Amino acid sequence: MTSTAAASVVGQPVSRVDGPLKVAGGATYAAEFDPGPGLCHGAIVTSTVASGRIASIDTAAAEAAPGVVAVLTHRNAPVLPYHEHKGLTDPPEGERIHLLQDDRVRHQGQPVALAVAETLEEAVYAASLVRVSYRPESAVTAFSDAVAHAVPPGPRYRDRGLEGDGGRGDADAALGAAPVRIEAEYVMPRLNHNPIEPHGTVARWSEGELTLWDKTQWVDNVRAEMAAVFGLPPDRVRVVSPFVGGAFGSGLRPWANVTLAAMASRHVDRPVKVVLTRRQMFGITGYRPRSTHRVALGADRDGQLLAIRHEGVSETSTYETYAEEQLGSSEYLYACRDVATRYRVAPRNVQTPNDMRGPGKVTGVHALECAMDELAAALDMDPVELRLRNDTIVDQSTGVPFSSRSLRECYQAAGERFGWSRRNPRPGAMRDERGRLVGYGCASATWPAMRQAAEARARLLPDGSAVVSSSSSDMGPGTYTSMTQVAAETLGLPLERVRFELGDTRMPTAPVHGGSWTMASLGSAVQAACAEARRRALAEIGRADADLAAVLRQIGEPVEATVRTEPGDELRRYSAHSFGAVFAEVAVDPDLCTVRVPRLVGAYGVGRVVNPKTARSQITGGMVMGMGMALTERTEVDPRDARPVNSSLADYLVPVNADVGELDAVFVDEEDPHVNPLGVKGLGEIGTVGVAAAICNAVYHATGRRVRELPVTVERVLGAAVR
Amino acid sequence: MEFLSPATWEEALAAKSARPDAVPIMGGTDVMVELNFDRRRPAALLDLTRVPELREWAPDGDRLRLGAGVPYAVIVDRLADRAPALALASRAVASPQIRNRGSVGGNLGGASPAGDAHPPLLATDAVVELASVRGVRRVPAREFYLGPRRTARSDDELIAAVLLPAPAGPQQFAKIGTRNAMVIAVASFALALDAGRRSAGTGIGSAGPTPLRAPEAEEFLAAEFDWAGGRPPSPAVAQEFGALVAAAARPIDDVRGSAAYRRHALSVLARRTLGWAAADYRREMAACG
Ligand SMILES: Cc1cc2nc3c(=O)[nH]c(=O)nc-3n(C[C@H](O)[C@H](O)[C@H](O)COP(=O)(O)OP(=O)(O)OC[C@H]3O[C@@H](n4cnc5c(N)ncnc54)[C@H](O)[C@@H]3O)c2cc1C
Description:
Chain A has 723 residues and is an alpha+beta fold.
């Protein structure tokens, strides 16, 4: 690192550089872009059967409605090439729905028509006039029916390293021989993406070039998919997405709004905007799939794990296979000789699920960590002690050492801040001043530290400032800010003289903004590009120690460097994961069985923390999501017709401010020399992992009752006690 | 859709009489949701926000006359001593934004069995004032709710106000929801004690096709409560009171909660509010003398 006044800016709690813009309403979100004259609005008509054919579709009334420019259906929509395209965030098995290309309906809420009109109101009204009748076909609607026909993820998932079956040793035999055993089933409902900004796109064609202003975590993939769908060379498509109003994974794939906006815009030869309604967010975008897990653990009487058997099944659609790594953590989180995992997917007539913050891990770790608590109870052992007893410095699923692992330090740090030592181990023994039952629970958290190739450009200007850019996204974690910090530190320029730009396919290529790998991947590229630009500037005047701003003034013209970085073999030599420990306090009304969460305390080992302020808010935000998963969130799907029942924010309950108590997140000191040049392991998702388990375990501690199906509703806490 | 925007109460009544199908809109916190979700597409909207009287409140004999359009926020801030149960319920409504707009008149207009204002109105024996070009009539809240979202209001009538008897003893309200705010009640309960008449009033929310009373529980409590000293009710009395309240409910299973839980919760809320009310009663007695 360079040695100027700015040298210590990495690691500082810098406030968001885009904060003032956002607070003042100056940040432009996808649907707010002005594409120039002639903008029309599209409103989507969606299917009302889970499976079948469109028998008839009558658009006459809609076409005659005021302001209507066009009504697109499979009968008049342009036939699109829909070339094969599988981005990293697309399921490798199956094929996306080809919108308005045929009469086939594969799920409730599938777009079957688009009304395009001068105003949004006119479009919505016209959409309501489209009459569709269906020839329903038999459908798998209930999850239980789908589970009966569950299958392994498939060969293309195997190529990506996601197997249906995994493990080591002989778990069944070890379980049979284990002196202490527990076995339980955990049910996790579907959880829907509900960022405050719904998905929306503005599309404009001019001279055969398509420009899309879109809400996305990956502009380059939107470009690639649209190029494939419309049969265009990718350089004829530009995607712009400078601000994202929350995504949590919902922006990983382009949804129907993108294709429909582009299709309609070409059809009517005017710019078109299509924004999903909140209800459509439940029928068109992906979601965290419903799943059922069965965990069996065996241990000796000292709490040494002897066997882990973990089986899980989650829902997918009939036209694509969405599989996620739900069980991997059971293979590496603890030391254990005999482990068996078995993962299946259950196809159902629904839209395809997709990644939601901490995909797979949030689900699998929930089941494992609830089971660990059950084991601790069976052993009459402190739950923290049980985890520490099975701590390991080697990833036993691969046999390679962890690049760094501070699980023990996390339990110590968080446990101390939480006051775990005050816990009376007996369930139901603690009360608060209001007479509520108090419970303390804990769980481990883990998320892999991954890295992708990334490219960044640093452009140093004669006025001593710098513009650094890459096509990344900032859906909320503070990428604008952290990249500015890395750039400023590397260049040796003050923070205010550095601007970071993102969200445009014209910029150097960033990896998808997901997987908690942006800091590791793009941070490395930004660092390298800035170092190279600085080197070039200093080389021009032949001095290595000069003040960069002065040098730039002297040179008098821009100095630029574009650098692509990629991971080496470090992730084969080391197993790299962030780890954490989260503690929950619950207060349970003994009569009403309402559960409140006065406190969540977590400690995390994530390598280097570039910005403790934005990092902390990543974790606490993740904790609130975990709380929602634990207590209120679930998408009710009608088992008769696979329709999401509670598709509004009045019925799909996320936590509100009044539900959130004290949130405390700290990072333990951790230096990881192996993972990447910055030494960062990623912290965007781990904050959600384990939270629901810690809460469930605390509910058990408060009440003596295991609630194994989420969310923890009053009925479930009250259980058999209800008359 | 026609938009009628009368500036005076007389114009409003005339408009409603001329267009009985016009949907009144006050705070709009129910109406706009219905329009947004396309549950309803009325031929005409009758905007009441320009009628000053609806936002006023004033004594009316020994009662408080509360204009139908007074928002919850005002009730919480200004009327907690004149209408304790209603103020407690108002505080439990939604969020600050909704409380700034939502009104008791709107709650009565929609007459959802889950509306938070209903249990206090029932428990305190409030009166609903209805008006039309034909005249004014006053209907006790206890006779107002006729069936699922059906009320004693005729199509040409508007809700002018509610009349709240001066509190003659402690009043309590309790609500259970799936989260701590912005939530429709899973069950709610209001209790009002009248020390002068030695009677008790109850109101049950979200546990039947309409807001309900528990008349047997009221009679039982009137007989069993220690009106002289406000002694804490014995566990047996509290238990029985809770059981009678639960028995008066007619809940169903829905996405927010099961019928069984609702009954259970009501018995708990009834016991608790009784305990709180008895404590208030003793405090008031001590303060008086
Ligand atoms: C986010 C949200 C949260 C909510 N939470 C709660 C809650 O916690 N508890 C609760 O009880 N409610 C809740 N509600 C519902 C709503 O806020 C209440 O019912 C409120 O009392 C409605 O009052 P308003 O003035 O907004 O009514 P409006 O929406 O204006 O009208 C409601 C109904 O009453 C009719 N009406 C209004 N005024 C008159 C009148 N003077 N004469 C005749 N008819 C009339 C209307 O035609 C309509 O049918 C919530 C609503 C929202 C949007």
